[in-house]
Amino acid sequence: MFYVFKRILAVIPVLGIVAVIVFLLMHLSPGDPAALIAGDTASSADVERVRHLLGLDRPLLEQFFSWLWRLLQGDLGVSVFTGLPVTTMIGQRIEPTLCLTLLTITFAVVLAVPMGIVAAWKAGTWIDRTLMALAVMAFSLPVFLIGYLFIFGFSIKLAWLPVQGFHSLREGFGPFIKHLILPALSGGLVYMALIARMTRATMLEVLGEDYIRTARARGVGNQRLLLRHALKNAAVPIVTTIGLGIALLLGGVIITESVFAIPGIGRLTVDSVLRHDYPVIQGIVLVVAAVYVFINLAIDLLYTVLDPRIRY
Amino acid sequence: MALTLAQIESRVDTEGRRPWWSFLRRHPLLVIGGVLLVIMALVALAAPWIAPYSPIDMKVLQRLQAPSAAHLFGTDAMGRDVFSRVLWGGRVSLIVGISVSLLATSIGVLIGMVAGFSRMADALIMRVMDSMMAIPGILLAVALMALLRASIETVVIAIAVPEIPRVVRLVRSVVLVIREQPYVQAAEAIGTRFHWILLRHVLPNAVTPLIVQGTFISASAVLFEAYLSFLGAGTPPEIPSWGNMMAEGRAVVQLAFNIILFPGIFLGLTVLSINLLGDGLRDMLDPKIARRL
Questions:
Q1: A5 alpha-carbon distance from chain centroid
Q2: Which of A278, B127, B186, B214 is the most buried (most CB within 10 A)?
Q3: Partner residues linked to B75 by β-bridges
């Protein structure tokens, strides 16, 4: 129990350093951030107004601590462009991204784990080679190329699915899933490839163990052998990869949202970058990093369930 | 009966001179990836001589043409030849791929060595690296680009920074193993200078995994450059890069799919060839890991 507590506490320094990095990004950049945020056409009075609004005219340490203090109260600051609180802007955009991310994870895990198991079981055969070749392709093909190929094929040529956009689940499950299926597929391929390769590698290792040979000698059937004996022991590294790959997945979601015109966090990021709206970018980076850290915390705590030998 | 020197020599010779295709048989990924990459690089380097048109000349009358004999890949919304632009775009990817992996590995090696040798710095450095890895690479690169004036140099920096933590972890783990080796401790005991230990003992052990890592970094750098440009936060729009071309093709995706398709295919092939090369190098240089993966 003490170790669980310790693992939870370990989140604090990581998030703290993320906050410092995010804060320093704006201050270590060459040139005047206030001028950059105000834009090329701004007058010097505008630049001064932005400087004062962001508190850039105060000493660095003072800025950091007042920023941190507000951050701890859940205040991510105010957008330079819209004047709205950053938390409100993120809140408005969170739903599509959350739906897309969850659907992508589900799709990738459901496909990748069986792929990896089959590839390990049939290691060295053409099945294995084909699956792994597909995995390397998925790593290499740019997300937007896959996305546009899907749009071109399924939406424009076949007209089976809508081209772009997002429909909330409240508008019915049909339109919701129709709009998300292609983005989830194209964004999830890289993540799927990662998990499939890792599943294959750990399964291969486990399948070489003595206890697998013993089980086989005792006449344990293939299915039971793979799922009960091998997969159970390969679960920890596979789940670790699923957690660490979340960063890759969230990166992919940013691109997918642009390709499929989904009004989520990814679009908000891109819009904010083009407007040099730094408070919003800082807010998004912080929120995304926190999501990543907490998912991996949850996974670490899950290990105690998956593998009773691990004790935190 | 003892062998004569000539007999031994002849045996050694046949051992050493395997038929040329046996290398291909043993390392198919390496050869396929390498050959494909060399072709892509040569095409990009030769762009000024083999491109049939200027990559930036706009001929408004010839806009949005389908692929034809005159314009192999068609023309874009401003009447520029897509084929010529694709060839020129390869140069941007080539520059970014090479510079990012050099920059990220050299900075990563420096930080990793400090972390490996100094217990005090280690804890802090590794916490910072953990924190950097909590931010998705694209997001960090995009955030950096928001604060830098768009140019090829800033794109290289923005892409290299998120790659540094992985190099640091790799180098640090090598240092931690090597530091405990008896020959290094012996070298320390006889008063070998510190920088000499780094150069003679640590670096040679780190070179193999670094080459593999560096290859994978340049594959992801080529992809990231395209992603950043596609999002409008990368290479300045007046420079023909594959990401820029695809970003411009977005507006007319329903009319002229070729504008997105061809740069996308070249981008995919380039990244695929580097990844294959990386897999092949790993299999050849590091059979221990290769057997596991």
A1: 26
A2: A278
A3: B81
Q: Say how far residue B38 (Cα) sits from the centre of its chain.
A: 13
Answer yes or no: are the C-beta atoms of B113 and B210 closer than 8 Å: no
Q: Is the pLDDT of residue B16 over 60?
A: no
DSSP-assigned letter for residue B77: T
CA distance A245 to A198: 11
Contact B127 A17 (CB under 8 A): yes
CB-CB under 8 Å, B140 with A270 = no
Spatial distance between the Cα atoms of A175 and A171, rounded to a whole number of angstroms: 7
Report DSSP letters for A227-240, one per residue.
IIIIIHHHHHHHHH
Does A48 contact B at CB distance below 8 Å? no
Which stretch of DSSP H or E encloses residue A203?
A: helix A173-207
Q: Which of residues 98-137 of A touch B (CB under 8 A)?
A: 136-137
Bridge partners (DSSP) listed for residue A85: A78
Domain ranges of chain A: 93-311
Backbone angles phi, psi at A156, to 5 degrees: -85, -55
Q: Does domain A93-311 have CATH number 1.10.260.40?
A: no
pTM above 0.90, yes or no: no
Q: Is the CB of residue A47 less than 8 Å from the CB of residue A34?
A: yes
Cα separation of the two ends of chain B: 46
Amino acid at A103: L
CB contact B129 to A (< 8 Å)? no
CA distance B195 to chain A (A): 31
- Which residue, among B26, B30, B56, B168, has the nearest Cα to B108 in the 3D structure? B168
Instruction: Report the residue from A21, A31, A149 with minimal CB separation from B132.
Output: A21
Listed by number, the residues of chain B in 230-249 with a beta carbon closer than 8 Å to a beta carbon of chain A are 230-233, 246
Q: What distance, in Å, lies between the first and last C-alpha atoms of chain A?
A: 7
Take residue A84 and report the two structure tokens written for it: 């709205």
User: How many Cβ pairs within 8 Å bridge chains A and B?
Assistant: 150
Q: What is the pLDDT along chain A (312 residues), one digit of tens a residue?
A: 677 788 888 888 888 899 888 888 777 766 677 777 777 677 777 777 777 777 777 777 888 888 888 888 888 888 877 878 888 888 888 888 888 888 888 888 899 888 888 888 887 788 888 888 888 888 888 888 888 888 888 877 777 777 777 777 777 777 777 778 888 888 888 888 888 988 888 888 888 888 888 888 887 777 777 877 788 778 888 888 888 888 888 888 888 888 888 888 888 988 888 888 888 888 999 999 998 888 888 888 887 777 776 665
Of the partner residues A13, A139, A251, the one whose CB lies closest to the CB of residue B139: A251
**Residue B145 with chain A: CB contacts under 8 Å:** 273
Distances (CA, A) of B124 to A14, A240, B153, B165: 10, 24, 29, 13
- pLDDT digits over B164-200, tens only? 999 999 999 888 888 888 888 888 888 888 888 888 8
Interchain CB distance below 8 Å, B147 and A140: no
ipTM of the complex in this document:
0.84
Interval B3-12: pLDDT, tens: 566 665 555 5
A85: three-class secondary structure by DSSP: strand
Among candidates A145, A201, A288 on the partner chain, residue whose Cβ is nearest the Cβ of B293 = A201
Q: Is B260 on the interface with A (CB under 8 A)?
A: yes
